[in-house]
Design goal:
- The chain is 42% helix and 15% strand.
- α14 (392-404) links the parallel β15 (383-387) and β16 (412-414).
- The mean pLDDT is 90.
- The chain is globular.
- It has 14 helices and 16 strands.
- It is α/β, with parallel strands linked by helices.
- It has helices at 18-26, 48-58, 73-83, 102-110, 132-140, 156-161, 174-184, 211-228, 235-256, 261-275, 294-319, 333-344, 377-382, 392-404; strands spanning 5-11, 35-41, 62-66, 88-91, 97-98, 117-120, 128-130, 152-155, 188-191, 196-197, 325-329, 351-353, 363-364, 367-370, 383-387, 412-414.
- An 8-stranded mixed beta sheet has the order 3-2-1-4-8-6-9-7, sandwiched between helices. It has a 6-stranded mixed beta sheet with strand order 13-14-12-11-15-16, sandwiched between helices. It has a two-stranded antiparallel sheet with strand order 5-10.
Length: 419
């Protein structure tokens, strides 16, 4: 009986979640001879190494790869793809789980039809089989679309035929990979059914707010521009690439405000060296990448951005009760950026509040992450909240939540992250 699925799980220091992730697969009501699980230990230094060894030794269909040194998720996934033998590749992060009966459901969809790719998103209007161009339009119109590789089930032979691997990027590694697999797929199943449960853990706080993240953004944008310049891509594909570049550029500009003076000089040099050959590329809104005075332009942007955020924070802090403690609601990218402004400007900050229970009681830059359960009457009366998000939909959900908890409107502050 040939393998139908290869489920790939890279991990690093995942002792709290790894066993649960693997168990969510092993407990599926699905023939174990039809799938394999490939674990890739990226040189963990906690007990997850021991957990993975035990899982592979007690389950015939669980295999373990041990990286000799910490190489990152891209290298680890590529190593797993190389070892995989299944007809279809399934990606799973070590802090995530498969939904009950996921494999059985996917198998029943794919066994009778020869498709290259399955894309899962609950916001799709209906289930359908589409060609690459049509699928691209459907996916592009989804506001909830994100380039997470675990949203896709991929035919392994297609990856091998086109030599598709993850690029050597530590963070945002999904961006280029997902774009390429959509482009080369001839037949794509788009389904509303979700097979995967994403659990954002503290270790994956979409990684780190630092130079590495900013540089990773640049590498992703660089790879997108190379793809954009290829002659044999369609107008729809070019539009898709432009949207991904715009998204990554927005993230890159936010990361810039977290850099110190030496890192700014370093990133300016990287930009000049990397993008000097792309002066003929006509993609709007990439001013910081194609400026003649890059370092000066970046410093000006960072100063302007920090002053803007500082002004918004101080206007709330100074005009209102000075005795109130400041908290940021949301410990995602924007919340963490906002906290750096508080810290750098020496504005007192009590910590974060977040709905993600996996983050509760953890610390980011020594700031504790609390559950919304702390928002009792006493806390509400003594605290000022800053919403650390830029998505209007998420902001409105948070506002409704705070309204139910009877938090005073005058103590809730929305931040404009765009200048």
């Amino acid at each position: 009986m040939s393998l139908f699925f290869s489920i790939l799980i890279p991990f690093y220091n995942s002792k709290a979640t790894l066993n649960k992730a693997v168990t969510s697969i092993l407990e599926q009501k699905f023939n174990k001879r039809l799938y394999e699980i490939i674990l890739v230990n990226d040189k963990s230094n906690d007990s997850s190494a021991k957990i993975s060894k035990n899982l592979s030794s007690t389950n015939k269909n669980v295999y373990l790869i041990n990286n000799k040194k910490n190489r990152g998720v891209s290298f680890s996934r590529n190593a797993a793809i190389k070892k995989a033998q299944g007809k279809y590749i399934v990606f799973l992060d070590s802090d995530d789980t498969l939904e009950v009966n996921a494999l059985k459901s996917i198998y029943s969809k794919l066994k009778k039809i020869n498709i290259d790719l399955l894309y899962s998103n609950k916001d799709l209007k209906k289930d359908e089989i589409l060609g690459s161009e049509k699928a691209l339009k459907v996916i592009s119109n989804l506001k909830s679309f994100r380039t997470y590789c675990w949203s896709f089930i991929i035919k392994r032979s297609m990856l091998l035929k086109h030599n598709i691997n993850f690029d050597k990027i530590r963070i945002f590694e999904d961006q280029n990979f997902v774009t390429k697999i959509i482009f080369i797929s001839k037949k794509i199943v788009c389904t509303k059914k979700c097979y995967h449960k994403h659990n954002e853990s503290f270790n994956s706080l979409s990684k780190k707010t630092n130079y590495l993240a900013a540089y990773s953004c640049l590498k992703v944008i660089y790879n997108f521009i190379k793809l954009y310049k290829k002659e044999r891509i369609s107008i729809n594909q070019k539009k898709f690439i432009c949207n991904r570049i715009e998204f990554m550029y927005k993230i890159f500009k936010i990361y810039l405000i977290t850099l110190n003076k030496n890192q700014i000089e370093k990133i300016s040099f990287k930009i000049k060296k990397t993008f000097s050959n792309f002066t003929d590329v006509k993609i709007k809104k990439l001013d910081l990448l194609f400026s003649k005075k890059i370092n000066l332009k970046i410093n000006h942007y960072i100063k302007k951005k920090k002053n803007n955020l500082k002004k918004q924070i101080l206007s709330s802090v100074n005009k209102k009760n000075l005795s109130l403690k400041n908290f940021i609601f949301c410990c995602g990218n924007y919340g963490r950026f906002l906290s750096r402004v508080f810290i750098n400007e020496k504005i007192p900050l009590g910590g974060f509040i977040d709905n993600n229970k996996n983050l509760w009681n953890k610390r980011y830059f020594k700031l504790k992450i609390y559950s919304p359960k702390i928002l009792n009457k006493e806390f509400i009366q003594s605290s000022r909240l800053f919403i650390g998000h830029d998505d209007p939909k998420i902001i409105n959900i948070i506002l409704r939540q705070l309204n139910k908890l009877k938090v005073l409107k005058k103590n809730i502050n929305k931040i404009n992250f765009v200048i």
